[in-house]
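Memo to structure team: turn this sequence into structure tokens by end of day. - J.P.
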Amino acid sequence: MDLRSVSTSPGVRDVRLVLMGFGNVARRFCEISAERTERLADEYGLRILVSGVATGSHGYLVSPDGVSPAELLQIYRLSDQVLPDAPCSLADLLDRA
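Reply from structure team:
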């Protein structure tokens, strides 16, 4: 599914998240959300976007515009399981995301 069509669909609103950690639970959340993108939009009027991720061992990601859960998983996998942004404090992450 093309995420641009979800974002422009009438009645679909963005839900932006900052994930604290990107272990098994957060990755599985992203997998399930990616699998159910169309259903979330059609049945619940939601599009999930991740604006930030902070981890102790996998790095950081800040994306003020947000990335889809599928895009986040792809970034994670393509970057050898390390997120690309420099470490920052929790307050800075929340301000930037």
